[in-house]
Structures are given as structure tokens and as C-alpha cells.
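Summary for the funding panel

The consortium committed to producing paired sequence-structure records for every protein in the target list. Below we show the first two records in order, beginning with the earlier of the two.
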Amino acid sequence: MKANAVAAVVFLLVGGIYGLLVGLTRWPAVHLLPADAFYLTLTAHGINVLIFWMIFFEIAVLYFASSVLLGCRLAVPKVAWAGFALMLIGALMNNYIVATGTSSVMMTSYAPMEAHPLFYLSLILFAVGALLGCMVFFATLVVAKQEKTYEGSVSLVTFGAITAAIIAVFTIVSGAIILVPTLLWSLGFIAEIDALAYRLIWWAFGHSSQQINVAAHISIWYAIAAICFGAKPMSEKVSRMAFLMYILFLQLASAHHLLVDPGVSSEFKMFNTSYAMYLAVMASMVHGLTVPGSIESAQRAKGFNSGLFEWLRRAPWGNPTFSGMFISLIGFGFLGGISGVVMGAEQINILMHNTVYVPGHFHATVVIGSTLAFMALTYWLVPILFRRELVFKKVAAWQPYIFGLGMSGVALFLMGAGTLGVPRRHWDITFSLTGGVVHEFPAAANTMLALNGLSVILAVLGGALFCVIIVLSILFGRKLGDEKQEPALIATPPDDAAYEGIGRGSISVPGTFVMAMVFFVAFALYYFINWKYLAETWGIS
């Protein structure tokens, strides 16, 4: 668990540095890197942050949700270490081969673009290691069941981790289906790779990999609500059903990346962009309501009942574990969730998919949502796992706000530039070096990209502060003693009797209800604003 968490933080730092270079190059007035270096950097940034940082940390979360939360030994530790070794070798190999300039194919590595064989081999090794980690997680659940280390059903946090692991297995299998033949193609054993088949299968892998993140970070939301407040889910059955909806629908909702691909049937596109996507979104909305609702219930049970939001005002905003989690929840919902549903609409998607609107959206979901949640949990775990006190506590209290503000700016300004038509994955958005017509964007587009560059600097500063605090805490933080310490609450939870009187004869969580209504109003306004832009492209007044 410790090794995976430390490796995750290291690759977050590496990916963040690459991200800074990408952001400064997209800024027209700076345009830092030459073309070849930009595509190299864009490839390294995506893989390090979206794959290596995320999955290393998620394997640590799986071990935490099984052995720590269920109070049992980790099954087959040797296999767990073998999985970690394969992941580390794959990650280091990938960074090396990308740095040589032979594999600047970006994270998607669409065929017929061809990378060095070691590029594909590195990802396969990493995936096999992650699969071993998932198997150890499932085996640990069996150990806990056999040794009766818990009563009844597993906790909701562990159930969420099970969801993430099941999606991970699906994802890794999909990756093997496409990456193994692509490796053989790069070695000359296969004559060609069908580009359409590659895209279809890759997105079964690529989109699902992001859904591992969603299931993992929502599990962490529930964990931190319990850690900070002793909060109980408003309805465990409803929350568990929402996790099951992820398994059934979330990894299927990938056709919005393939809407203009002629070989994909209209029926498949329609199912994915309507039923599958909306059922998955419904699951996220359930979690977005129940997590703050559980916090509000716990706070009101402690007597924080004045007005709609005393419960929220009296929350520990100076504790990075709570603040990181809550900013993650708000950013994921308002920025990532709303933009994702809007972009999932077929007509809007066709216009926006190949613009920087897309990276703006997933920076809101994966970076604000997942990364901030992972950071928040790390602040709590370091003293427990490493027996070290956090260093620079005052800086740590501000770090989630710095990172959250910076990354919110990245998401908003990229989406703004995308709305104005700025293409993604292009070193020169004006196409001035093609010898053809130079495309001039409105001045607002350049302003958006400049603001994105400034936001990137702020976000990378916040990310660097996190990495420095965690690494220095592990190495030099004050020792807390060697006595065994069980995972503990940051705050004293209310007893069961305190919960009983909450909400009788009225709405139990009025503050959460109001925030949900604000969300729906924001969603409706944003949705129809986008349709206005769409109508203008059709020449409709």
C-alpha cells in the first residue's frame, strides 16, 4: 500500500511538470515548446497523470479498502509486490521511450500512428501489474470473509472499491485486446491494424479507465465523510445500487468519442449517448446528493441546526482532508458533471469533440474530482500508515484551495476556448505552417488560452506543494511512535440517538436539497446556452 501510494505521488509530480509545459505552449503569447517537443510532452503528460498516478493510487486504495478497513491480512503479499514491480517497470519504461522522441502518439496512440514497440510493451506490463493488484484485492476479500474479520456486508467504502476493481478488470481486458496486437504490429508480425476497430476497442479501454477513477474517488468521498464527521449514508441500499449502475452502464457510455466514425452503428451510438450515459449520470447524481446529505445529517445531529448552512459553515475547512474532498465533490459535479452531460448530447458533441473543450471537461472530472479526493485521503493516511506527522500544516491547509482554484480555471478556460472552436492536440491552432489558409480565432480565444496558462501555473504550484508536503512528511516528519494505531475519526461522531430526531416531519437535509436545486438550475441554464450556440451554427434565429 505504501509503495503504491509513494509511486503515485512521484508520477503525479512528473506528469504535472509535463502539464505545465503543455499549458505554456497552448498560451499563444508564450508558445514555449517546438512542435516535436509539444507532442512528446502531451503524450507524457497524459500517460503519467491519467494512467500512472491514478492507477498506482487506486491500487493503494484497494488495499486500504480491503486489508485496513476489514481488519485482515493482505492476501498473497508476494503477488502484490510482483504486481507493483511490473507496474513500476512499465511506468519507467514508458517514460524512457516517450522521452527518446520515438513514441509521440499521445495517450490514445491511434493507429495507423506507430510508436516504438517498447511503448506498447510498457503499457501491457503496467496493465498486467494492475490486474495482479486487483486479484490480490479480491483474494483479500475472501480472506476477510473466511476469517470473519467483519460482520454482515462489507462497508460502503469497500463496496465502492469492489466496483472500481470490477471496472478495472473490464478495462484491462479491453486494453489487452487492442494493445497486444498493436505490439505485434509494431514488431512486424501483423501487417496492419484496422483503425476503426482500434478506436472502438481503445475507447472501451480508455473511457472505462476513467470510470475506475470515478468509482474510486466517490468511495473516498464516503470514507472522508465518515472520517471527518462519523457520517452515515442516507441510504446504503440506494448508494450501493448507484455503484452497481456504474458497473452496468458507465463503461458502456463511450460512443460519444465515436459519433463521426462511419463503421459504428447508429443504434449503438444512440444507446450509448442516451440510455447508458444518462443511467450512469443518474448514479453520480445519487452520490452527489447522499454524500453532502450524510454530512449535513451528522452535523445537525451534533446541534448545528441554525439556518440552512450552519452545518456546512461549521465544517473543518482548515483540514485538507475535508476541504480537498468537498472541493472535489463540487468541482466534479458543477464543472465535470454538467459539461459531460452537455457534451454527451450528439449534436453538441459533433461540434465540440475535437476541441479543447474535451480536455477541459476531463480536467474537471479526473483532476478536480479524482486527484483532489486522492490528495485529501493522503493527508489522513500519512500519519496512520507511515507514523509521521505532516510537515508545513498551514501550507497543507491552503493547498487544496490553490490546486482546486487553479484546476477549475484550467477546466473553465479550456471549455471556453473549445466553445470558440480551438482544436485539441494541435501545436499550431491557426495551421499557419500547413501552407494553406490560416485560421484566425476571435480575440476571446487567445484570452481564454492565456487565462488557461495562468491557471496551469497555479494548479501546478498546488500540485507541487502537495508532493513536497507528502514526501517531506514521509522522510522527515516527526515520528508518532511505533504503537499500532487504528484508523480514527478526525471528529467525534454523533451517537445513534442523535440521528433519530433529524428530519421528522420535514426535509431531513434542507441545505443539501437547496444545493441540489442550485445544481439543477445551473445545469438547465448551461444546457440551453449551449443549444443557443448550436442554433447559431445552423443559422437559426
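The next record, for a separate protein in the list, is shown here:
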Amino acid sequence: MKTLNKYSSKSKAISSGQETNFLLSSDLNRPPVHVDAEIKNGLDFSDAMLALREVVISDKRSVKKDHTKYQAWVFQEYLKELNKSQPDSIKEIEANRKKTIRELNNLGKKIKNNPLIVEDNNFYKAQRKFWQWLYNEDKDLWYILDPVISVQPECIIFEAFSLDESSYGRVTLPKKMLSKSKKYTIGTTNIDFSRNLANEFSRVRSYRPLNLKIGQNNVIASTEISENIEKKIDLPQSWVNGFLEVQTASTLNHLNFDLTPDFVSDIIAFLEQHKNNVSPKSLKIKLQNNKKPIFEIEPWGKKLEEHNYIYHGPDKEIRLWGRSRLSILKNILKKTDKVSVSAIDDGMPSFWSCKLNDVTFDLCLSGWTANDWSSQLKFALMSADPKRIIFDNECELLNEIRNLVNKKIKLSISEITKKVNCQEKDALACLQKLCSDGLVMYDFHTKEYRWRELFNSGDKLIKKVTNKNLVKGLSIDPNLIKARITNLPEGQRNITWVYDKKIFGWPRLSRAQIILDNKDNFIQTDCDCFDFKKTFKKEGPCQHLIALMNKYIWERYEN
């Protein structure tokens, strides 16, 4: 889905010797959002925003070399030689070329008049190819995927995904850093984040006051040096899936530890000095209780021990891929005292948090660079109800929670369950549904759910199910599934599929099992199928695990 955000006029940047002003306009199609205040220590804020900019422009996907121009040159040289030796042949080739062009033009007209001729997959491939070309040819025109601003009661949150959508960045500016506040109206909007605007952030100085104004008719960052025009913004539907995935991943069980900035800098420096094309390309992390974390950079076997911080938690050894994306933190490490890391498991997402005094910058990395946040619903499907997350499922509890969070703006899960008088797992399922609708966000710092509307109130979100395992799993009739449910300590449940080979015809499939915590989230899974063994951590649960979870939910609600 694309939304059109309108700004009434061009943006400007004006800085004087006395002060620097950043005026960020809100979307004219949305309810008004206003902030007008001076930022204490504006240099920390500008450094965090520059780091967010690094997220926006980041693209770590491997790109094949373009030989188009070279091939065109070779063809022209061939024609020159052919023209000298066989002048009649060159005329025939040219005539055939013109004929082919006419045929292609006619075919293009037919496709334009009948869009159904073009398959969806081919269309999206062509669309991505166009955006990649635009990125290479004109970056200013390409930069339309810009940060989302949420003005909350006690903070302002800036969020954005990278170009390859494998990295998520967030800047949290607490309200206590705002002084001389004249206006403060909560809400959600977008800002243009062009190269010129980033340059204005780089001109911020500690000796000049920094003023932040949100809710003007244009985006203005004030200096006497330049003037830039910001563009209209499209917010792709994929970002909704991305926000949902980040939220769900942040609620899973994590291994938490701290690192010194110098230690992270050593890792980045080593990776920049050593290029490799040999697997494994991972960071192997050894965590032992009451000991310093040890990182091994593969395949070289380079071991680095954390300088100061001690890890407290269960002994664990995990691997993280996509390590090159840590370079986003390179410039911000010198401004922070420590890097707080939260990791889940091998190849799972990781969260890297840096505090610049009171300003917080968060970098959330998917398991692999090629494994983006938005293409598959991986972690959302590891929660209570796969149907409710994806499809419209209006119910009284859902509407009650929606109205409650909208009114209170932010609430913890315990406060929500107390006010609506429901079980925590039912409330979590409804909150996941609201997040998938672009209405609610989970703040992993405060562990609260916040009201955050990604779209204009008049826009209708059209959901497309792209996860093939989800489609196949939900197509299996729950009545045909026999499940054995065993209660475990601490409210956990062991759900095992008892297969009837006569019904499903899966002779090789003998086991599918899910262990759920007291909130009905996956904590352990197992399945004999190929998808689970090869792609579980990349693409999420297989069709059998989804069908088994759907059976469990169906038994709980229907019977």
C-alpha cells in the first residue's frame, strides 16, 4: 500500500550564529501534530538522526555487475567490422532490429491495455528493478521511504527501515530534553529525509541552540548555506509487516549483555580489513555466566574478549549473520558509553542499543542480510493466533482494546488485561492484530503498547498473504487433525500432532510438536518436514506447525 503525504511548500535550511532551527512539517492529510521546543544538547540528537540516515540508505544486498554498456559497445564494434566486410548484411540486421522494436511496442500497448497479462511476480520484479535503477541514477528522487515520527506523551520516536529492509532504526528523544516548549500535540506523521536535510544535521554545533518544530506546512532545517525542496512520501505496505515483525521479535526471550564501544569498533575494523568469500560468515558468540562475552569472527577464527562488561545469564553459544550491517554504528560508537545487545538464537534477530546521554538509538538486525523484516511473517506466526494476525476478525474484545489504547495512548499488557478483564494471551493476540493493521506499536524500552497510526484515517489497508506456509497451513481442516495436549510446569503446554497417514498421505512425516509458554508463544518446535529443517529461522513456521497451532486455537475457542 502507498499513502500520499502532502506538504504545502518547499523546505528550507537556515542557521545563524545564534541558533539552528529544524522545522519538520506534518502530513496535511492527517490530524495536526505539533512540537515547538528547544532541544537540550542538540548535538546528541543530530548524531542519532545521522545514524538513522545511515539505516535509511543502507543496502547490503549483493548486486550483479551490469555489463549492459560493455555489451552495447561490443555490438557496435561488431557492426563496424560487419559493415566493412558485408555491407548488405548490416542493412538486413538493421531492418530486423526496427521490426523487432515495432513488435515490442505493439506488445507493450497490449499489456498496458490488459494488465492481467502480466503476472504479479513479474510485476514486482520489474518494480524492484526500477527502484534500484532510480537509486543508482538519482538518489534524491529515490529517497521517498522516510522516517515515521510518533509524538508520544513523554517522548518523540523516529523510525525507519533500510533500503534492503533487513535493518530497522529508531531514535527516541525524551520529552525532558525539550525546553521552552510552546506546543506539544501527540500524533503520527512522516518527514522527508533527503541528502540535503542530512547535511543540515551534520552542521549542528554544541554552541548553538537547536530548535525543533513539527507541524509546519513545510520541512525546514535552518542555515544560511542552502535551501532544499523535500518531496512527497510513499509508505509501502511492506513496512507494516516490518513493524509487526520487529514488535514480535522484541517480545521473544532474549539473551542480554553489554559491550564497550571500543570492542564493537574492533569488530567493525577487523571486518573492514578482511574481506572473505568463504563460509561461515558469522559472529560466533560464547556467553558464560559471570564471564565476559567472547566473539569469534569466522572463518578466520579471530577471538575477541569483551573489555569490561560481565554477562549474567544462562550459558549459551550462538551465531549471528549479516555482521557487515554493524557498520551503521561506526560513527555513533564514539558518542556512547556502552552498547546493549539482545540476541535470541542462531540466525535470529538481534537488537543493538546505544545511549547518547538521554537520546537512544536502536539498531534491529534481521537474522540474515538477505532475510528482510517484511517479506515473510516469520515471528508474528510464532504467537497465539495466525488467523487473527492476518485476517480481519472483528470481535468485541478487539474493539474494546482498540478503543482503550487509543484513549490512553500507552499501556502495559498488565494494565490492558486488568481494564478489559481478559486473559493475557487473548489480549496479546488482539494487540498483534492491531499492530498488523498499523494502529499499535510495541515499545521494547518501556514494554508498553502505544497508539501509532501508520496511515491516514481514510486509507484502507489491503492485506496480501505472501507466506506460502501460512496459506497451506490454514487450508488444512482442523477437524482432520488429532492433537495431544499436555500441560507442563509454569503454564507451558506441549502440543503434538498425532498423524493419520490415510488422511494426509505423508508417510515420511512422523512428528510435529510445539511447546508454548503461558502466553501461547513458541518456545520450542520440531517437525520432520523439509521446510522446517532448512528454512525455519529464515521463513518462520512450516505449514504443519501453523496447522497445529490453528488446531490448538480452534479447540480453545470453538469447543
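Regarding this second record: The two ends are 37 Å apart (CA to CA). Residues 437 and 461 are 7 Å apart (CA to CA).
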